[in-house]
UniProtKB/TrEMBL annotation:
This is Replication-associated recombination protein A. Keywords: ATP-binding, Nucleotide-binding. Residues 37-149 form the AAA+ ATPase domain. It holds the Pfam family AAA_assoc_2.
Length: 424
């Protein structure tokens, strides 16, 4: 029997949960489907976040033939079969999983079919396509990042599966307690497939009560997902409350509180939330006050990913202690947010002519790159010249802080360069 997650795959764009930035009304993929002007694309993001579902929904909404292959395990012969079908039927949507593992032979065969539009390629990958996918494929596709689903998105899909009598579990006399629904939607880090698999296991392995009702309680959900609920709270906010308290404890330099909240997360099996949050904390809250601590945090989380639980707790504990006692600075995030605020408010301006690309014939006639001063030709490898657009030539985004031993030195050099620039 096909797994519940497979059976519940959407057949139209409207059935997709989450990813509204891509498939919501008026958004890019929705517009492609509506106009039937599909282009090949790469969807990248964590497992269970809807890459295959989006591909299936696109095919269902457009009524094009839909085929699924794996770049690692399927052969060039399999691609040839799809290509022959495309020649006969006109257009085939091909979902190519693990596209980052596509070898050159298969790629060279596939490229002409992408060019003529017979095959609409939807590549799926968990790897960053800008790093892991060949430029020849990238140049012929649009790249869309698929985000982990929110608990609300997962809850919608879980409840839909319980009531669906055709593809879901609706034929069972099933009662899922609210706290079990909340746990299943909050505890898989946005992985809908894992949530559906756990729900199906719970439904199929739980005996009905005297009234013939299969009751899915929180302990049953925990057992089937092999995780513990951090706490039982009716609103489902507890998980995010713990993550929030974890970051705020490190930011506030309370080592014992930070270790306590990390222990709660690790005890629930949520290693990924700890890893992601530590990386954010390192660069958001410590940053330039102690850059080496940021580097050691990256090393610690890398070790934790290789080790897995329970050993992962060891390098993570070291990182938490160092980040907690470290001097703090949020000047980096404040600086980029200030720059982004100008962009969002329309303060952009033209790139100065002397900074524009001059590596093409006729650039000099347009004034591109003329009068650019190459800093390495001057003493101390520096020369004063304007880099910001005219509209923003006096903008300042970085405000140095005096915490720690490193950033004050950065700040002194920043001020010297800024004053010299403006003086000249």
């Amino acid at each position: 029997m096909q797994p519940l997650a497979y059976r519940m795959r959407p057949t139209t764009i409207e059935e997709v949960v989450g990813q509204q930035n891509l498939i919501g009304p008026g958004k890019i993929i929705s517009r492609m489907v509506k106009a039937k002007l599909l282009s090949s694309m790469i969807l990248y993001g964590p497992p269970g976040t809807g890459k295959t579902s989006i591909a299936s929904a696109i095919a269902g909404s457009t009524k094009y033939a839909f085929r699924m292959l794996n770049a690692a395990t399927d052969s060039k012969k399999d691609l040839q079969i799809v290509a022959e079908e495309a020649k006969m039927s006109g257009t085939v949507i091909l979902l190519l999983d693990e596209i980052h593992r596509l070898d050159k032979t298969k790629q060279d065969f596939l490229l002409p079919h992408l060019e003529n539009g017979h095959i609409i390629l939807i590549g799926a990958t968990t790897e960053n396509p800008y790093i892991s996918i060949n430029p020849a494929i990238r140049s012929r596709t649009q790249i869309f990042e698929v985000k982990p689903l929110s608990p609300d998105d997962i809850l919608v899909a879980l409840k839909r599966s319980v009531t669906d009598t055709e593809k879901g579990l609706g034929q069972l006399n099933l009662h899922v307690y609210p706290e079990a629904f909340t746990f299943l939607s909050n505890s898989t880090n946005g992985d809908l497939r894992s949530s559906l698999n756990a729900l199906e296991l719970a439904a199929q392995s739980t005996d009905p009560d005297d009234n013939g009702i299969i009751n899915i309680t929180l302990p049953i959900a925990e057992e089937c997902l092999q995780k513990k609920a951090i706490t039982q709270d009716k609103d489902g906010d507890a998980h995010y409350d713990v993550i929030s308290a974890f970051q705020k404890s490190i930011r506030g330099s309370d080592t014992n509180a930070a270790l306590h909240y990390m222990a709660r997360l690790l005890d629930s099996g949520d290693l990924q939330s700890v890893i992601r949050r530590l990386l954010v904390i390192a660069y958001e809250d410590i940053g330039l006050a102690n850059p080496s601590a940021c580097q050691r945090t990256v090393a610690a989380v890398t070790a934790a990913e290789h080790l897995g639980l329970p050993e992962a707790r060891i390098p993570l504990a070291d990182a938490v202690i160092e980040l907690t006692v470290s001097p703090k600075s949020n000047s980096g995030i404040s600086a980029i947010d200030a720059a982004l605020a100008d962009i969002h408010n329309g303060k952009i301006g033209d790139v100065p002519d002397h900074l524009r690309d001059s590596h093409y014939k006729g650039a000099a006639k347009l004034g591109r790159g003329v009068n650019y001063q190459y800093p390495h030709n001057f003493p101390n490898d520096w020369i004063a010249q304007q880099y910001l657009p005219d509209k923003l030539k006096n903008a300042e985004y970085y405000v140095p802080k005096s915490n720690g031993q490193i950033e004050p030195r950065f700040g002194e050099q920043y001020e010297r360069l800024l004053n010299a620039q403006r003086k000249n």
